[in-house]
Amino acid sequence: MELLGSKTVQEVLIQGEQVPEKYIHKVEDGGVPVPDASAAQLMDVPVIDLALLAASSISADELEKLRSALATWGCFQVINHGMSPEFLDEFREITKQFFALPVEDKKKYLRQVNDIQGYGNDMVFSEQQTLDWSDRLYLSVYPQDNRKLNLWPENPKSFRQTLDQYTMDLQVVTKTVLKAMARSLDLEDNCFSDLYGGEQGKMDIRFNFYPPCPRPDLVLGVKPHADGTLITLLLQDKEVEGLQFLKGDKWFRAPIVPDALLINVGDQVEILSNGIFKSPVHKVVTNSDKERISVAAFCIPESDKEIEPFERLVNESRPRLYKKVKNYVGIYFEYYQQGRRPMEAAKM
Ligand code: OGA
Ligand code: NI
């Protein structure tokens, strides 16, 4: 059960308080989070041309780039995805405009306790939880029946229509990526997409707003986590970095490629691929003088689908690593609430 909601970060800032204790990462629970965030190296993930993956004869080089990126980093960037730079700018703009509205106006879309959809901050499950320095607007967009239109902003005026267009375009990107992922592993083209559900596959959108933070040395925008999805498609801020990925025991900065989407696989693809593709642990750091926005799209299998390693990827040299799971997103939240890594639930 969720505890009573707390303030948004913007409200904390308006009231001019010191950074409240609840946001501070303590040494005893894992150390100072970001002693020097900018010292982290840039990650070298490839930028993949989606047009080459979508072609009827997919380029073998591009497929190999994809496979190796997902096996090492669990993510890649994609260009030529069918959305123009102007459209992406417009989409970033409506995001900024929404968060720039007065708090009172945004509260019309406030998330209710125990509901994930709506405007607000982190869901709080325990007194011990360290809060993320970010405000969000979380909306389910597909299947269309999941839409709670009363939570879709009417201001800026073009918000709903632009979001609708953006997510329609993302469904096309998702379809191409899932198929290419299957091919790169020598599997049936539709093995991932059959679990997803095509144009009406379950997609949730999380608009993230990270206000400047007076203590970037002690506070995170998003604490380390891996996503519980099949894949996540992220539109990053065009100017302000913040996202970092863990590889081995080192953090690396995700570079900004202005018109690219950053796509990472989630836990469910790690399970399906029997661990060949890695669901990467990532976090968002804060900075003291610039605000940052990002928009994450979460692609999730229908909750009645059973998720387990594809048989073709289990053999003597690669023994089965994961059990069969169902409704992994439900498991994810249960574990997350207890401060445990959700993937533990799936390990053999
Ligand atoms: C997330 C996430 C990264 C970002 O929303 O799950 O990891 O850059 N976001 O905002
Ligand atoms: Ni994430």
TrEMBL record:
InterPro entries: DIOX_N (IPR026992), IPNS-like_FE2OG_OXY (IPR044861), IPNS-like_sf (IPR027443), Oxoglu/Fe-dep_dioxygenase_dom (IPR005123), Plant_2OG-oxidoreductases (IPR050295). GO terms for molecular function: L-ascorbic acid binding; metal ion binding; oxidoreductase activity. It comes from the Eukaryota. Residues 201-301 form the Fe2OG dioxygenase domain. Gene3D superfamilies: B-lactam Antibiotic, Isopenicillin N Synthase, Chain (2.60.120.330). Keywords: Iron, Metal-binding, Oxidoreductase, Vitamin C. Belongs to the iron/ascorbate-dependent oxidoreductase family. PANTHER family: OXOGLUTARATE/IRON-DEPENDENT DIOXYGENASE. This is EFE.
